[in-house]
Amino acid sequence: MTDSPARVVAVHLSPAHSFSKPDVGEIQLHEGRGVVGDAHYGVTVQHRSRVRADPSQPNLRQVHLMHAELFDELADAGFHVSPGQLGENITTRGIHLLELPVGTRLAIGDAVITVTGLRNPCQQINDFQDGLLKRLIFTDGEGGVVRLAGVMGIVSRSGPVRPGDEITVELPAEPRFALTRV
After folding, report:
1. What is the 3-state secondary structure (H, E, C) of the chain?
2. Where does residue 81 rank: exposed (0-12), middle (13-18), buried (19+ CB within 10 A)?
3. What are the pLDDT digits (tens) for 133-167?
4. So what CATH class is 7-170?
5. CB neighbours of 148 closer than 8 A, spacing ≥ 6?
6. What pLDDT does residue 3 have?
7. Which of 9, 41, 136, 162 can pair with 34 through a Cys bridge, CB separation 3.0 to 4.6 Å?
8. What's the CA angle centered on 87, arms 136 and 44, to 5 degrees?
9. Tens digit of each residue's pLDDT (9 = 90 or more) over 71-85
């Protein structure tokens, strides 16, 4: 990654539970609820499979962030993926999202997102492009599961987010804990 500041590349939302989300000029983050107008907006979980399991569980997946560097790596492997196509709300560049610990706060303009965990990619990714799922979730040489499909977070402070906005990272106090799937 570069020495330039971390930035928002693109923002996306969809009111339907669709796989991809179209680019928009701005999203509004609402504290404790998520992206206004998005299908995953709410205090309690909105992901369909999780709603079926327990609709009262808290929504730790209010905002999905994905790093554009992943799209560059996928292109080198023969896949074409553009921002929003894997369902993220915010596409970033210049930040190691997957290396952040739980509780990291990402300030974007007036908005703040607190990172809760890793996105667990699902079979729909292969429906989008055959073989892509194996590039986003796999087992490393030591038997650990590696998930590359971005991070999830909750909105800790409301505000607009636009392409070009700078992202400031505030790490949590120690001890810090590695991200796991949410």
Report:
1. CCCCCCEEEEEECCCCCCCCCCEECCEEEECCCEECCCCCCCCECCCHHHHHHCCCCECCCCEEEEEHHHHHHHHHCCCCCCCCCCCCCEEEECCCHHHCECCCEEEECCEEEEEEEECCCCCHHHHHCCCCHHHHEEECCCCCEEECCCEEEEEEECEEECCCCEEEEECCCCCCCECCEC
2. buried
3. 999 999 999 999 999 999 999 999 999 999 999 99
4. mainly beta
5. 70, 98, 121, 135, 136, 137
6. 66
7. 41
8. 105
9. 999 999 999 999 999
The domain spans of the chain are: 7-170
101 preceded by cis ω (within 30°)? no
Distance, CA of 72 to CA of 98 (rounded, Å): 16
Q: pTM, whole model, 2 decimals?
A: 0.95
Please name which of 88, 81, 82 lies closest in space to residue 66, comparing C-alpha atoms.
Answer: 88
Residue 103 region, left (φ>0) first, then alpha (ψ -120 to 50), else beta? left
Angle at 124 between CA 73 and CA 132, to 5 degrees: 25
